[in-house]
Amino acid sequence: MPHTPGSNEKVLRGIPVSPGVCRGRIVAIPRVQETEIPRLVLSESDAAHQIARLEQALLATRHEIQEVQRQVSQGLGAQDASIFDAHLHVLDDPMMLEEVTRLIRDERLTAEYAFKQTAEKFARTFAAIGDEYLRERTTDIRDVATRVLNHLLGRDEEGVLHQIKEPCIIIAYDLTPTQTAQLDKKKVLGFATDVGGRTSHTAIMARSHRIPAVVGLQTASHDLVTGQYALLDGFNGQIILNPTDQTLFEYGQLVRRQVTLEEKLRDTIDKPAITLDGARITLSANVEQPGDTEAVLASGAEGVGLFRTEYLFINRDTLPTEEEQFAAYRQVAAALKPAPVIIRTLDLGGDKFLSHLSVPQEMNPFLGWRAIRFCLQERDIFRDQLRAILRASVEGNIKIMYPMISGLDELNQANAFLAELKTELDGEGIAYDKRLEVGAMIEIPSAAVAADSLARRVQFFSLGTNDLIQYSLAVDRLNAKIAHLYEPTHPAIVRLIKMTADAGRKHGIWTGVCGEMAGDPVLAPLLLGLGVTELSAAPSVVPQIKYLIRRTKLKEAESLAEFALESDSGAEILARCRKLARGVAPGLFDQGVGP
Ligand code: PEP
Ligand code: MG
Questions:
Q1: Residue 1 confidence class, pLDDT cut points 50, 70, 90
Q2: Per-chain residues with Cβ under 5 A from ion ligand 2
Q3: Taking the CB of residue 7, how many other CB atoms lie within 10 A of it?
Q4: Which of 27, 151, 157, 363 is exposed most, by the fewest CB atoms within 10 A?
């Protein structure tokens, strides 16, 4: 940790993912590894206490499993809930419990150590058996063991997050998008994680909730201690422990400059996103919840370019019904009418999961059962959503788009299902928008290359650059270790964007960008120069993008794109993008601190 001489100020550096500065006490939530359970030998008199702890943990685990079982059987039916019977049997296994008790009594071990040793021994024994049914019990034993150990070790991150009483800065090993969505803005001043990347959904959520955040801090959650005082700088990606008066003064100035900038940006809210040479750009906002429409209107965006509907599905115990979804989509469409609202169909998987759907664990979730792949197989879930969107489309301003289209076959299947549901609604006499437009997200390289054939079957393209970059460059968007390889200006990305926009134009459809590139003032001009005519970004950054567009000439953006298409260096392209953006809107980039 760098150290400022003469003070006990310490600076930890990570990746900035959500702008803003905050200061306060830290709540540290490190990752507890099971391997860390030490083998402590206790005195004889401790055995009764250890056995009582074990019994309490077993009882708590039983209640927990029964609760999950109840939720699953309500959501999916008794059949799916039956796997939890096997888990309850593990908890009751007399041989296993006898062995744990013996280790506590005779060898004077702690309950957690004895339980972990025994569960591992039993799991290994089952794993070695030829019979497939018995082998499967290994997973049950490991699942149950994790739950019991969580109770014994007080390892409950969700619990810690719910118990926060005072406003604080959270420093965690990791936060899932689900946890981030649950954070209470009044109590969480900012957060930082050891892992993660700029386009992880956790980072995206932080930006949309305007919570300053830093990721990729490596071992911060382990090195920092609850109760320490720190400043979190979401502009430059730093945590400063025990900041000196000089540091606080410099940050005070930075915050003042930001307030002045925000006042300036407010002036553009009611103005159109039009370049200096008269090119009209559609500037829309990305939303996660029906309640986000207020932020959309306040940002000056012209509608919604991406409604991430999966957030309607997470943080609850059952799937949302068609009626609930209908109400949510209609609410958004009605609030923003006549501005368009692009509803993206369910994009579950990757880093967004539902605890109540028993989706098997995958080695490569981002390459797995995700988004349209999931929906085309789980037709009941897809049906409810498409019917809800169709019904809400009577408002007249809804468009649909499918995520993760890899080629024509998936697009045709999705469109055929949509047509089937329209016929179903016709049969029921239920109205929907007959001119409803359908778009494809271009976020898999194969879709960009095949954009020419996809363009004949849709009315628009929306480039999901977050995934397009991760898949094209084979760089996991969550992995802080390789974040330096996640390069939006890589020549291959520039060419894929151009290829998509050209294919769209050839077939008379527009191309937008709803990935995080669209909300980056440095990169937005490049996108416009490549032929993109719609940008959709978090409401919090929409004013900056509009400010920049209104100071840029499309001609300059096109020259930048021409340069980028000729260049073979991502760094060189980025440098040119920076030069243009800083030249036209220097005030947007004044976020440094110090002399
Ligand atoms: C993208 O991939 O760029 C995108 C907008 O979708 P998401 O970030 O939700 O995967
Ligand atoms: Mg995506």
A1: very low
A2: 443, 464, 467
A3: 13
A4: 363
Catalytic residue among 87, 151, 201, 209: 201
Q: What is the mean pLDDT of residues 541-555?
A: 97
Q: How many A from CA of 240 to the centre of ligand 2?
A: 33
Do residues 525 and 536 lie in contact, with contact meaning Cβ atoms separated by under 8 Å?
no
Please tell me the distance between residue 394's alpha carbon and the centre of ligand 1 in angstroms.
27
- The reply to whether ligand 1 has any atom less than 6 angstroms from the CB of 352 is no
Q: What is the DSSP string of 323-385?
A: HHHHHHHHHHHHHHTTS-EEEEPP--BTTB--TTS-PPP-SSGGGSS-HHHHHHH-HHHHHHH
Q: Is 528 exposed, middle or buried (0-12, 13-18, 19+ CB in 10 A)?
A: buried
The active-site residue, picked from 22, 168, 375, 514, is: 514
Whole-prediction pTM value? 0.78
**pLDDT digits 0-9 by tens, 83-103:** 778 888 888 899 999 999 999
User: Which token pair is 186?
Assistant: 């009044």
Check if 514 is active-site: yes
Tokens of 205: 């959520």
Nearest to 344 by CA among 379, 306, 293, 374: 306
